[in-house]
Automatic annotation (TrEMBL), chains A, B:
Pfam families referenced in this protein's UniProt entry, alphabetically: Nitroreductase (PF00881)
A GO MF term: oxidoreductase activity
Keywords carried by this UniProt record: Flavoprotein, FMN, NADP, Oxidoreductase
This protein's record includes keyword Oxidoreductase: yes
InterPro entries listed in its UniProt record: Flavin_OxRdtase_Frp (IPR016446), Nitroreductase (IPR029479), Nitroreductase-like (IPR000415)
Assigned protein family: Belongs to the flavin oxidoreductase frp family.
PANTHER family registered for this protein in UniProt: NADPH-DEPENDENT OXIDOREDUCTASE, OXYGEN-INSENSITIVE NADPH NITROREDUCTASE
Transmembrane segments: none
Name assigned to this protein: Nitroreductase A
Cited NCBIfam families: PRK10765.1 (NF008033)
Amino acid sequence: MLKLLKSHVSVRKYKDEPVSDETLHELIAAAQAAASSHFVQAYSIVDVTDPDKRDQLAELSKNPVQIKGAARALVFCADLKRLDYAAAKHGKTVEAGTTENFMVAVIDTALLAQNFVVAAESQGYGICYIGGVRNNPEPISRLLGLPDHVIPLFGLTFGVPAQTNEVKPRLPVEAILHTNEYDETKYETLLDDYDETMRQYYASRSSNNKAAGWTEGMADYLSEPRRAYMRDFVRSKGFLQT
Amino acid sequence: MLKLLKSHVSVRKYKDEPVSDETLHELIAAAQAAASSHFVQAYSIVDVTDPDKRDQLAELSKNPVQIKGAARALVFCADLKRLDYAAAKHGKTVEAGTTENFMVAVIDTALLAQNFVVAAESQGYGICYIGGVRNNPEPISRLLGLPDHVIPLFGLTFGVPAQTNEVKPRLPVEAILHTNEYDETKYETLLDDYDETMRQYYASRSSNNKAAGWTEGMADYLSEPRRAYMRDFVRSKGFLQT
């Protein structure tokens, strides 16, 4: 089992083999066994099967290859809408706009998704998270008819792998694990070591070679504000009001 | 494997058996194999072993039984601080304050945590997520010395289970899965059915019996604003500025 987890890689090319509705349902049922904050189950999944919608999702996400080529393309959504219905049954209203409830819905959805990934990989499928659905969240919300209190967090493509990448070395455990007290003094040395590890990995891998460490890529990537519209989008859907 | 996932329950009582550092490291290494948005790995884990700190964490989280009784008590944190160091190595600054980067860090941390849970459960351990660390995020941040750009999202206790609860029925798959278009018309009927399922479950389970469905509990829980300080706290740590 630890071996299965440690063998995870993003799979971007899939064989032309379908995944049945039955299998999809089975994997989702297993995924739903993940913990949920106060059992709110604040998530939905949209399964995009319509070819035209799939094409549009692919373009809007700027991930055409994975999304068009996968057996299934799912969009995982943080969802407080279903809870609106639950509350209305008892004459009440959900306080969807708090930062706390936004966090609850995002975390719930991510736990569901990761359980789905483990379930799918345990059955021989490969997956790829598609953060690209946040490239055009408003048009994608319209495409999928998402109401207020529902936002697309990420996509997930899956199918039978046609090509598998090498596993990328992660940060050393010591760099993410602190004992009793957060210790940032260790980063200087550990990040130098990790840069060296990643440089060797990037130089030696069979495709997409490059000569860079981890910190360099992070510095380039994170120093520019990305998706600066996100706050307005999230707020337009009724989240993060207070 | 699907069977393992579907057997998940929160474990709140643990045997008095330690978990070695070696095991903890092994589980974290497996957890880290989870996908990470653009490989930012925006998370940290604080392992609270000091008895005094553990007691304080237990009180501040309002979860004394689990936290004091578990072999290990971990706090999972969304963390852009390490990336500050990575960027600084190249004379750059991370745009930590965007809503997008907040979401990236929260999702990354949740994926890590759920992979950790699967890893731990596959080795016979039981776990419990402790959302209660968000009851007092500011004092807990001080207790653990969390700097800016690091916030505690949830705790996780784990150890050898002393008592295992029954698995709670989840929403039916049809209630969370939409095809091509979000369909809220189905909720009325599906939530009635699910209420009936949950009523039977709560009435028949061996402890903590109650006579209520799911929607009723949700209506009560979510109609009151919870943790209304969360936005200020998150912003005070440098997140959600824009």
